[in-house]
Amino acid sequence: MVVAIDGPGGVGKSTVARRVASARGLGYLDTGATYRAAALAALQSGADLDLPAAVTTAVGAATIEYADGAVLLDGVDVSEEIRSAAVTAASSKVAAIPAVRAIVVAMQRSWVVDHGDGAVVEGRDIGTVVFPDALLKVFLIARPEVRAARRAGDHEAAGSAVTEIQAALEQRDHADSTRAMSPLRPADDALVVDTSDMTLEEVIAEVLEAVDLANDRPRLL
Ligand code: DC
């Protein structure tokens, strides 16, 4: 059983997904972290990010693992390193390459199969592409200035001005929403929640209620 939580950067997906997973005893997979690890693999290999074949070769040669919230690249914990501004910028480019997505999505699906009791999976295309049969699909949104203010509170953005953060977020959202493969968009059957004027606790409560309703809903098999 998969709960998909998608949406743009800075909307609070990770916090909400982590809390919902722990409240219902489910696994938690941050798929953004897997694209970030792929981007770091490409950067470390020295591949030209504008050459999809070179990036794909680098990502294909790397071992990306996700365990207990930590991301390992070739056995090394890179959980901190993947939050750097350089990796953040590279991740959007790398994630637009179809062959890279194929490698990373295969890893995401097998992670969920290995966590048989169910998982909350967070990303951009989870409800539309990776798990189109998810039990519940949530798409979180918030006004850009609200997302920038939330991101400013993250360790990743420490020291940056909110206006700079907002510009970088909007640039990345534009790239993620307009790419040809698996663009950021809500699934037709997603529950879209505008979190702009909600507290974190209110968002979590709304998602938990939707999870419980979906669990009780009779399903046609
Ligand atoms: O959620 P995040 O900021 O950690 O994601 C990093 C990048 O990876 C982001 O630019 C979009 C991309 N991504 C994606 O294309 N598909 C996903 N399922 C998750 C993230």
- What's the structural domain tally? 2
Shape: globular
Can you give the mean pLDDT? 93
Give start-end ranges of low-pLDDT stretches.
Answer: none
As a percent range, the share of strand residues is 15-25%
Topology:
Elements: E1 2-6, H1 13-23, E2 27-30, H2 31-45, H3 52-61, E3 64-67, E4 70-73, E5 76-77, H4 85-95, H5 98-114, E6 119-123, H6 126-130, E7 136-141, H7 144-152, H8 162-178, E8 191-194, H9 200-216
Parallel strand pairs: 1-6, 1-7, 2-6, 7-8
Antiparallel strand pairs: 3-4, 4-5
Helix pairs in contact: 1-9, 2-3, 2-4, 2-5, 7-8
The structure holds 2'-deoxycytidine-5'-monophosphate.
Give a summary of the structure in a few sentences:
The chain has helices at residues 13-23, 31-45, 52-61, 85-95, 98-114, 126-130, 144-152, 162-178, 200-216, and strands spanning 2-6, 27-30, 64-67, 70-73, 76-77, 119-123, 136-141, 191-194. The protein is of the alpha/beta class and 221 residues long.
